[in-house]
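Hey L., structure's done. Input below.
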Amino acid sequence: MPQDDRTTLDTPEPPLAAPSPTVPAQASPPPSRPRSPWTPRLVVLGLVLASLNLRPAVAGLGPVLEEVRTALGMSGTVTGLLTSVPALCFAVFGGLAPRLARRHGPAAVVLAGMAAVTAGLALRPLAGGTPLFLATTALALAGIAVSNVLMPVIVKRWFPHRVGAMTGLYSMALSLGTAAAAALTVPAAEALGGTWRTGLGMWAALAALALLPWAAVALRDRGTGRRNARTGSTATPAPAAQPAHEAPVPRVTRSPIAWALGCFFGLQATAAYVTLGWLPQIYRDAGLSAATAGALLAVTMGLGIPLSFVLPRVAARLSHQGPLVVLLGLCGLSGYTGLWLAPASGAWAWALLMGVSNCAFPLVLTMIGMRSRTSGGVARLSAFVQSTGYLISIPGPLLVGALHGASGGWELPLALLAVLMTVQIGVGLLAGRNRCVEDDARVRD
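Output:
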């Protein structure tokens, strides 16, 4: 899908319009009031702030996982479950996002999601036992899940000719939030004279900031909808809506491209959540301190900041994203090999390699935006790919924890991850083909 970088943030996409049921399709709809030029600027700000909050709930937990487990009396099985909770919540709640967006508008849904993240992160440190800790974590992750799914939809709707650039922008912000949470949770808690509770709770303040731009965008959309209702205009600002000339949204469950994307997403999510949940522990078991382990995780996630901005731009200009899939996969295989052979002496090198490999996430987000020709298709494809992918990724962290507990070392878990990375390369090559889900639907017709 070719990309055109000539669109600027000051030139928003015109509001989508559909013919009135009582007016012939060829008739022009009544004119609607133009959208404010500030709306796309608010959307950009909202994308960045929301993306900063899509991983601290998970990344901040890894460096203090041992302290949380001790304080709350968690068993090894429950700890392994905790590392799989993100994928479970993303799969369950992410599938609701398109339906909620159609009913309430994507801006309102992202606003509600950020409110859930704020509440969950603020309440989690107050938990005195495992059930409440898991419940508040799930609340925050539910908010993250719906926002995850709607990010590509919002990009496709407001910036349809800058999918690569805007995906890179919010992917970079996501990586920045992840790295900051990994690096600062322990030092900030120590500087404030607090415990792991202080380190985890402080991220609620960042989530609260994201409420402001999304509240403004949601209010503008609501006001535009009311004006359209008064004037009889059929125009709507909702990003998930479809213009009259768009083809019907295809059934993505029948598309091989959609399934390849879902499997690729699931395998890269498995690697990412194993890295977030267990990489600091691998380093700590190799003799490194908690602060050093957190810093190494921050390097792994921080490397995604520049790469997540550049990679989607490169991917959007390629007719086949397969070479990028192979490059990232080989970096992951090299990182696993290094962690097996010399986890402590080569710690920084393995952190860098794992950081490059984790950039499969912005790559698959870019491919989601390129594998459908309509905003409605992207909405359905994004929900399917992310829900399917996160379901696939649920067993990964659990299996890693079980293998580690059974063997007492990290060799078997790393061998499992190497096998999964090899499969990831294969399905990524299929997902990287220059096809859209509409093409698959046409073949079946």
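Residues 1-34, 231-246 have pLDDT under 50 and may be disordered. The chain has 21 helices and no strands.

-- N.
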